[in-house]
Amino acid sequence: MAGKKLKTHSGASKRFKKTASGRVLHKPAGRRHLLTGRTRSQKRRLKGKSEVSPTQSGTIARLLPHD
Fold first, then answer.
1. What confidence tens digit (pLDDT) does each residue in 29-51 have?
2. Which value, to the nearest 10 degrees, does the dihedral of the CA atoms of residues 44, 45, 46, 52 take?
3. Could you tell me which of 23, 28, 24, 30 has the C-alpha nearest to residue 12?
4. Which listed site, 23, 30, 40, 56, has its alpha carbon 20 to 30 Å from 62?
C-alpha cells in the first residue's frame, strides 16, 4: 500500500529556489518601498538572489520536496 504523496508548500515555492547542487536561494528583503532612504550601494547589494543560511536551508528544503 502506497503512502501519501508529498506536496510542495505553495508559499515556499514562490519565495525560494533550489539549485542543482542543493543550495536554497531567496530574494533579500528591503527592495519594495522606501528606497529613497537607502544608499545606492545598499540597493545594489540587495539586487539578485542570495543564499539562505544553513540553519534554515534544511527546513525550507523539506517544504520543497520535488524542486
1. 999 999 999 999 999 999 999 99
2. 160
3. 24
4. 30
